[in-house]
């Protein structure tokens, strides 16, 4: 009976996952509505001014106007759809992207068969609970979005070039869907920050 009840690494990882999610939601609740970030005010200023089809903001119009527009449009759209304040919208966007980044990185380790091993769990949960990663759960910053794009490109590249079972290739439909998702993710990343162009080298490095 003890052998059947003995916790496995899979059970341990699920407990860590629940603890991680509870901690992230707790951080968001603690900092909700507080504009915290190195240039939070400047980012929200751009979100107020930027539009999808309107004229491009001038480089000297505001502090962060040199940045691409996509990262500022997400909080703007969320604010218009839900009616929350600009601070809460920016926080919620960063929070969601940080969770999606975690999920993508977790997907990489799962695809490689490392998620339920001690080294895989240590890599995932130690790296994702560092102070700078916790800051992404409530801070107003574009870095949470860039972390997601980097994790998503790594995950999609791993699934495309590292098949879980080489003897059983994926169907052409699944393969093409993954490649389209990879191209869209790569194309979107420089629209958040220009450093997204660096992600273009990641699929080649994985392959």
Summarize the entry for a quick read.
With 207 residues, this protein is mainly alpha-helical. It contains 10 helices and no strands.
Q: How are the elements arranged and paired?
A:
Elements: H1 2-5, H2 9-31, H3 40-49, H4 70-82, H5 86-111, H6 118-127, H7 131-135, H8 143-161, H9 172-188, H10 202-206
Helix pairs in contact: 3-4, 4-5, 5-8, 8-9
What would you note in describing this structure?
The chain contains ten helices and no strands. The protein is 64% helix and 0% strand. The longest helix has 26 residues, at 86-111. It has helices spanning 2-5, 9-31, 40-49, 70-82, 86-111, 118-127, 131-135, 143-161, 172-188, 202-206. With 207 residues, the protein is mainly alpha-helical. The mean pLDDT is 88. It starts with a helix and ends with a helix. It is globular and about 55 Å long.
């Amino acid at each position: 009976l003890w052998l059947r009840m003995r916790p496995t690494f899979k059970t341990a990882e699920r407990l860590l996952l629940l603890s991680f999610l509870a901690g992230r939601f707790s951080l968001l609740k603690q900092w909700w509505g507080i504009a915290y970030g190195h240039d939070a005010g400047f980012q929200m200023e751009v979100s107020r001014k930027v539009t999808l089809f309107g004229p491009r903001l001038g480089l000297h119009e505001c502090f962060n106007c040199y940045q691409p527009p996509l990262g500022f449009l997400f909080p703007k759209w969320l604010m218009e759809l839900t009616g929350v304040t600009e601070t809460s919208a920016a926080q919620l966007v960063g929070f969601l992207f940080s969770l999606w980044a975690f999920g993508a990185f977790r997907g990489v380790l799962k695809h490689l068969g490392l998620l339920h091993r001690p080294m895989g769990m240590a890599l995932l949960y130690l790296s994702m609970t560092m102070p700078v990663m916790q800051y992404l759960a409530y801070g107003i910053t574009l870095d949470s979005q860039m972390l997601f794009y980097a994790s998503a490109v790594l995950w999609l590249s791993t699934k495309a070039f590292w098949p879980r079972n080489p003897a059983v290739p994926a169907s052409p439909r699944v393969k093409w869907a993954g490649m389209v998702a990879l191209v869209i993710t790569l194309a979107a990343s420089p629209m958040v920050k220009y450093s997204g162009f660096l992600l273009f080298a990641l699929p080649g490095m994985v392959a």
